[in-house]
Design goal:
By secondary structure, this protein is α+β, with helices and mostly antiparallel strands. It is about 50% helix and about 20% strand.
Length: about 190
């Protein structure tokens, strides 16, 4: 919180005010402190979401401008090897081909997958190796069912990849004209960046 605070009024229903009072008391906090914490947490989540979507849109602009992507099968093989602890080179960029149904990754999405791999490996190499096939198989689903992801901001689609109490999320766009799924951004839900 900044050194200078300003007063803001919130209009709450009596029922919500009572719920907040009960939960705050159970947490050993004042209602005011509880609401400040909740607003701060929700604001941070909204900012992370805004930045994630902005990253996906920048990746999409880069693909549109340069036409370079990574083949989906090569990316997922690379990702699997990374999470198994194998030293492996990233796949080569290729020109986006518009001739057949396919899954491709924007260059930023490959960087994102590398960051997710590093994050998972820092948590547990065993869990990372077990997570790799889940993420890889989930990212293959839009090849057969391109609209499976729920609608997201700016016409993107969002694919949730669950693992226990957490998981990953990918933002992609399905280009109907070329029958291509372009993965634009990926993050693990517990990453802090």
């Amino acid at each position: 919180m900044s050194a200078t605070s300003i007063t803001t009024t919130l209009k709450l229903t009596e029922a919500l005010k009572a719920r907040i009072g009960r939960v705050a008391a159970e947490a050993g906090k004042s209602s005011h402190a509880f609401m400040l914490e909740a607003i701060e947490r929700h604001t941070a989540l909204a900012e992370r979401r805004r930045d994630f979507v902005a990253s996906a849109l920048r990746a999409e602009e880069e693909v549109a401008q340069y036409g370079l992507v990574y083949d989906g099968d090569e990316v997922l093989s690379w990702f699997q090897s990374r999470l198994e602890g194998k030293a492996t080179r990233p796949p080569r960029k290729r020109r986006l081909q518009r001739a057949m149904a396919r899954l491709v990754f924007a260059p930023c999405a490959l960087s994102d997958l590398g960051r997710v791999a590093d994050f998972l490996l820092r948590q547990s190499a065993v869990d990372a190796a077990a997570t790799a096939p889940l993420i890889s198989s989930a990212l293959q689903i839009p090849k057969q069912h391109p609209t499976i992801g729920r609608g997201a901001e700016a016409g993107l689609r969002e694919l949730l990849i669950s693992r226990g109490h957490s998981g990953s999320v990918a933002l992609y766009r399905y280009d109907t004209a070329s029958d291509t799924v372009v993965v634009l951004a990926i993050r693990h839900q517990r990453e802090q960046h």
